[in-house]
Specification:
- With about 170 residues, the protein is α+β, with helices and mostly antiparallel strands.
- The chain has a single domain, classed as Bifunctional nuclease domain, CATH 3.10.690.
- It is built from 5 helices and 8 strands; from the N terminus they run βββααβββαβαβα.
- Strands 6-5-4-7-1-2-3-8 form an 8-stranded mixed sheet.
- Strand 2 and strand 3 form a beta hairpin.
- This is Bifunctional DNase/RNase.
- It comes from Microbacterium trichothecenolyticum.
Length: about 170
């Protein structure tokens, strides 16, 4: 499977098209210098990751909060997540669980895997080949600090005020 590089989330950015990008940086910067790995994700996933990193919580459980709670009730935990490969520009990931029945591995979108790791303290790893293919110099990206309280607050208000009927077609 090749070598894996342990990373941390250094921020969430918006690209020029206003798409959310999560930025992953090696924990050990001697491994790949000043490279960061930008992974494009949806707005909801971006907010879910920010909420988890900041530990602010949300008024109602997000999908990743629910999954984490269910895993806990089943005595399972996220041990690590891995961004394993790129396929035609799409990132693929795996979630490694510790369960009473032994280790289990699930395919996942990187955004979901990282949101779960951020809630559980599980480590985040990226295949070296993925960094080689998609890593960019960190000065090439504008990082929006994770502590963007206004956006989190705005999202919280949205969750408080949203009416499910608004989404009926």
């Amino acid at each position: 499977m090749g070598d894996m590089i342990r990373v941390r989330v250094v921020g969430v950015a918006l690209d020029p098209a206003q798409q959310h990008v999560i930025l992953l940086k090696p924990v050990d910067t001697s491994v790949s210098g000043d490279l960061v790995l930008p992974v494009w994700i949806g707005g909801q996933e971006a907010m879910s990751i920010l909420v988890a990193i900041e530990g602010t919580g949300s008024p109602r459980p997000l999908a990743h909060d629910l999954t984490t709670a269910m895993l806990g009730e089943l005595s399972a935990s996220v041990e690590r997540v891995e961004v394993t490969h790129l396929d035609a520009g799409t990132f693929h990931a795996r979630v490694h669980l510790d369960t009473p029945a032994g280790p289990r591995i699930f395919d996942a979108r990187p955004s979901d895997a990282i949101a779960l790791a951020a809630r559980s303290g599980g480590s985040i790893w990226v295949a070296e080949a993925v960094f080689d293919e998609a890593g960019v110099p960190d000065e090439a990206v504008e990082i929006e600090a994770p502590a963007d309280d206004d956006r989190v607050e705005e999202f919280r208000r949205f969750l408080d005020d949203v009416d499910p009927d608004d989404f009926l077609s």
